[in-house]
Design a protein that fits this description.
Bound molecules: coenzyme A
Shape: globular
Strand content: 25-35%
Number of strands: 7
CATH topology of one domain: Aminopeptidase
CATH architecture of one domain: 3-Layer(aba) Sandwich
Structural class: alpha+beta
Oligomer: single chain
CATH superfamily of one domain: Gcn5-related N-acetyltransferase (GNAT)
């Protein structure tokens, strides 16, 4: 029999923890979320107001209660520094599939392993807690860091929305990537 008490929490990574979003996170979100480099990765460079972000937090909490979407704060496990947010939503209960998104907010925190760490937690949540069969994401073709991280973690490119995003005079593809339950298990085991 599996001893569930000896299985590590999927919300705890090497250096990050995924925790619930609070209304009080608004101040931290507003510090770096509108940074151009961060917003480039997310594919929407138009700055968000604090009211829009507060609405997003409130919606996240409501959607969590309805089981529609689960967004988390990525926090440093020791310093408790707010690093960003991530989540899974757009669930199809029939196909057991969903979509994933992630953002480390302060560019000074890029390339420190936090995104990789948080992605592994989020995949564990998706496959082992939500019992998903498939998770999908979209990444803009210029976002080479994110593309590299997803490939490293076992995600596969399944197609491209060609020239789907116009930015500063040029069109960029949106690369669709996914990972299946068995691929996740082969790479990360069952616990
Ligand atoms: C994309 C993102 C989640 C990655 O998280 P991160 O913490 O910065 O990344 P990590 O430190 O875990 O890993 C970075 C990896 O990318 C590599 N990398 C960095 N810049 C790169 C580039 N220009 N091209 C290719 N690889 C690059 C690093 O060498 C490292 O590789 P390694 O793990 O094999 O050594 C984070 O940078 C982020 O949130 N960016 C802003 C928003 C965003 O783009 N979100 C994703 C939308 S799809």
């Amino acid at each position: 029999m599996v001893d569930v008490y000896n299985i590590k929490s999927p919300f705890i990574g090497e250096n990050v923890i995924l925790r619930a979003i609070e209304i009080t996170d608004l101040e931290e979100i507003m510090k770096y979320f509108n940074t151009y480099e961060t917003r480039l990765g997310l594919g929407n460079i138009i700055p968000f107001s604090s009211k829009q972000e507060e609405d997003w937090i409130r919606r996240s909490i409501e959607n969590y209660s309805k089981g529609i979407e689960y967004n988390f704060v990525i926090e440093h496990i020791e310093t408790k520094e707010f690093l960003g947010t991530c989540g899974i939503g757009s669930f199809s209960t029939t196909s057991r599939s969903a979509e994933l998104g992630i953002g480390i907010h302060n560019p000074e925190n890029f390339d420190k392993g936090y995104g990789t760490d948080a992605m592994i937690c989020l995949m564990k949540f998706g496959f082992r807690i939500q019992n998903l069969h498939r998770i999908e994401l979209g990444v803009y073709s210029y976002n080479e860091r994110a593309h590299h991280v997803y490939k490293k973690l076992g995600w596969k490119e399944v197609g491209r929305k060609r020239e789907a995003y116009f930015l500063q005079g040029k069109y960029y593809d949106c690369i669709i990537m996914d990972i299946l339950e068995h691929e996740f298990e082969e790479k990360y085991g069952k616990e």
